[in-house]
Write a structure and sequence with these properties.
The protein has about 750 residues and is of the alpha/beta class. It is about 30% helix and about 20% strand. The strands form 6 sheets. An 8-stranded parallel β-sheet has the order 9-6-5-4-3-2-1-10. β7 and β8 form a beta hairpin.
């Protein structure tokens, strides 16, 4: 269809519907042009050149640079030098078809400037901040010619034994969907295509063991583990990464249900899928392929378009095609997806990277300021008995104790891309800078080594504590104990940290513990003995000033836990949105849901986080007592800052379907809003939740919102107060064929 544009005299405004319609027409024409270019290029390719586009190779061995000019490599990873990127681009232009490569890198929470790790960022409960952090990370990386990131990690996890929980958003599918979309959009704004990972179920391995198998019923996949990935499709993620794990006995890298039926047929995803590192080769270890040729065949036919660091496609697919075991049309479709992404990204028209550029340009003053602002809002005040924090005006001396107070590398966290330790402003430095401005003396004694294996400095630490008005202890989890391949069976503070902290408590001095870690730690009796505890996660390059801002009260803490904090590792997996049981907990009846040696509840619930002020909820109202198809549940509440300080609160809306055809969670987060209030100020907060979001999936993917009551809860964490009920008038059923993800208008980059 041709589109004619007319000059409109005067201040005439097009309606929003008209603008969207015209935009859709222009977008459709652009997509048609891309498809034509893809088909023209594909028709000119040899089989070997096609397979070359499916080959993803890392910098260093086994990269053979000459193969770029031979058209045997379609994408490269772990390039972080502009000179190397420019060299590879020049070689690609020497190839017969001059197809530009993708340059991918794991950029999860920053490139050179490091923002808080993703789990910490999730604690801000702010899609705006998630987008800002991702955009700045992308700006730095794209400055050097990188155009693709293996992020965001959209894996939901309910088990903090799993080290890679640090890379995600926690335990809730709604929070995960909102933040995944924000991260995809932020990366795109900054110049990076995304690869949502790890598809799917990777965050629920047996025993919390990284790489182990997962068993998740299909309905649970649809309801809990897939929503963040579906949000990535809707937000315009260019690619997905298949997970290492086997899902219900079928490895994700050879799982047509995941990669074809759900991702492409049900959601309408037309981007490409890459394997994880050597993931296709690992199909032989999974026991579903006898050799590498069969592994390559199974992965391609299941829907994996690109082979990362396996070289199985280039070695075996041409022979498999010529032997008739793989249709060339299947190879063509995989190549079409890769080429489509490259055209959409504009790679054919982009100038080559400037080889003299360096990441030494960063961190800039601007990125430092943004990193500090983001980090402030991720800090979670877990408890604050006796108002130990913020630092009182009467405090004239502070003893800073603990090796993680001055651990520049460790506060960056794992997967720090090009982050340099020397860029970090440590917690100790942040405290000293702030204390100096207030005339407060600071003495630092680490008390033990980084892993607290020896305590030779404990006497000096205790002496410093005795002389101080306030003790600030910084302990937790060194970077090497978190991230990939860092599963743990014990989550208590490692080494002799507990011994050191117990000794500090025994001095009787007011004390605040700052936890630097990538997951909740098992605090045991320390939670009762230490009055004030602040969860700092791995706060990034500007973590020190951000922590000091909160400790001294220049910033009021507003972070909320994106996961349930266990009392003991034996509670794991632990999550707020569990199903009810026929024997709910009765404390005077042992034959109900409970442990003999520990409470059934978390130490701190999902959504928990204190402030230096207080908030009151009143006049909650459900404005839609009856819901029909197309309606939205409308709920409002007045929130008042009842304290003496300005602060932010995350208002959270939960629902429950108490009677359904299958057991439903006790609570489910359906909406949240972060608001800022001055002392005494009130704000009316309103939510609208589509009725179609109040249901659940069946095993075949059908979505059902059943007629009947829906309970509503409002508050500041998952233990929010009940405010009443609404009712769905008639059952709504949506088959999988009608659940295609709605892709944003900005998808074509």
């Amino acid at each position: 269809m041709a589109v004619r544009l007319f000059h409109l005299p005067g201040p005439v405004r097009l309606s929003a519907a008209c603008v969207l319609f015209l935009g859709a027409l222009v977008s459709a024409k652009a997509q048609d042009d891309i498809e034509r270019k893809v088909n023209d290029l594909l028709s000119a390719m040899t089989l070997e050149e096609k397979v070359g586009q499916l080959n993803l190779i890392s910098h260093g061995p086994p990269l053979r640079w000459e193969e770029i000019s031979q058209g045997k490599i379609g994408a490269l990873l772990n390039f972080n030098s502009a000179a190397d990127v420019a060299r590879a681009q020049a070689l690609a232009r020497q190839s017969r078809l001059k197809i530009p490569p993708l340059f991918g890198l794991d950029i999860l929470h920053g490139f050179r400037t490091q923002f808080p790790i993703p789990l910490g960022e999730a604690a801000a409960f702010s899609p705006r901040l998630s987008g800002v952090a991702s955009e700045w990370a992308a700006r730095e990386a794209s400055y050097l010619g990188i155009n693709w990131t293996f992020a965001p990690m959209a894996d939901l996890s309910r088990d903090s034994r799993w080290g890679r929980i640090v890379e995600g958003f926690g335990e809730d599918p709604y929070l995960g969907a909102v933040l995944t979309a924000a991260r995809v959009e932020g990366f795109r704004k900054g110049g990076l295509a995304t690869s949502a990972k790890h598809f799917a179920g990777y965050g629920a391995p047996q025993g919390g063991r990284d790489y182990d198998t997962t068993y998740i019923p299909p309905a649970e996949m649809y309801d809990t583990y897939l929503p963040p990935f579906r949000a990535a499709v809707a937000a315009g993620s260019v690619s997905f990464m298949a997970a290492f794990n086997a899902l219900n006995g079928v490895p994700s890298t050879a799982n047509p249900w995941l990669l074809t039926e759900v991702l492409r047929n049900q959601w309408g995803f037309d981007g490409f899928v890459t394997s994880d590192w050597s993931g296709i080769h690992e199909l032989t270890a999974h026991g579903v392929a006898a050799d590498d040729a069969e592994a390559a065949r199974k992965a391609l036919l299941a829907g994996v378009d690109m082979d990362m660091m396996g070289e199985l496609y280039v070695k075996h697919l041409p022979g498999e095609v010529r032997a008739g075991r793989v249709p060339e049309s299947a190879v063509d479709e995989a190549v079409r997806r890769v080429l489509r992404a490259k055209f959409r990204l504009g790679l054919f028209d982009r100038p080559d990277a400037n080889p003299i550029r360096s990441d030494a340009e960063f961190p800039s003053p601007e990125t430092r300021q943004v990193a500090r602002e983001v980090a402030r809002e991720t800090l979670v005040l877990l408890q604050n008995r006796n108002n130990v924090l913020p630092v009182a005006p009467s405090v004239r001396s502070i003893a800073v104790i603990g090796p993680l107070a001055d651990a520049a590398r460790d506060q960056l966290g794992p997967h720090a891309a090009r982050g340099h330790a020397q860029d970090s402003v440590t917690i100790l430095q942040g405290i000293r800078q702030r204390a100096q401005s207030a005339g407060i003396a600071v003495k630092y004694v680490p008390a033990c080594d980084l892993f607290c294996r020896t305590t030779d400095q404990l006497p000096a630490a205790l002496a410093a504590a005795q002389e101080a008005d306030l003790v600030i202890a910084a302990f937790g989890e060194p970077q090497d104990l978190s991230g990939e391949a860092a599963s743990r069976t014990r989550l208590a503070p490692s080494g002799k940290q507990v011994e050191v902290l117990e000794a500090l408590v025994a001095t009787g001095k007011p004390m605040a513990l700052v936890i630097v870690a990538g997951r909740p730690l098992e605090l045991g009796a320390l939670a009762q003995k230490i009055p004030s505890i602040l969860m700092a996660w791995y706060p990034g390059t500007e973590g020190g000033p951000a922590v000091a801002d909160v400790l001294f009260g220049d910033t009021n803490p507003s972070g909320k836990l994106p996961l349930s904090w266990p009392r003991a590792v034996g509670q794991l997996p632990l999550y707020y949105n569990r199903l009810p049981t026929g024997r709910p907990t009765l404390h005077n009846n042992r034959f109900t849901l409970q442990y003999l040696d520990e409470a059934i509840t978390p130490l701190y619930p999902f959504g928990w986080g204190l402030s230096y002020t207080t908030f009151a909820y009143k006049d909650a109202a459900i404005e839609t007592p009856r819901l029909n198809a197309g309606d939205a549940l409308k709920v409002s509440v007045t929130v008042t800052n009842t304290g003496a300080r300005a602060g932010q609160e995350v208002v959270q809306l939960y629902t429950r379907d108490p009677v359904a055809s299958r057991s439903r969670p006790l609570r489910e987060l359906k909406a949240f809003e972060k608001i800022a209030l001055e002392p005494g100020q009130s704000k009316r907060v309103s939510f609208q939740v589509p009725v179609e979001s109040l249901g659940f999936h069946l095993d075949d993917g059908t979505y059902v919102a059943e007629a009947g009551a829906i309970q509503v809860f409002l508050g500041g964490n998952a233990e929010a107060e009940a405010v009443g009920e609404t009712a769905i008038a008639n059952t709504i059923r949506i088959p999988p064929s009608q659940q295609r993800a709605s892709v944003s208008a900005t998808r074509a980059q």
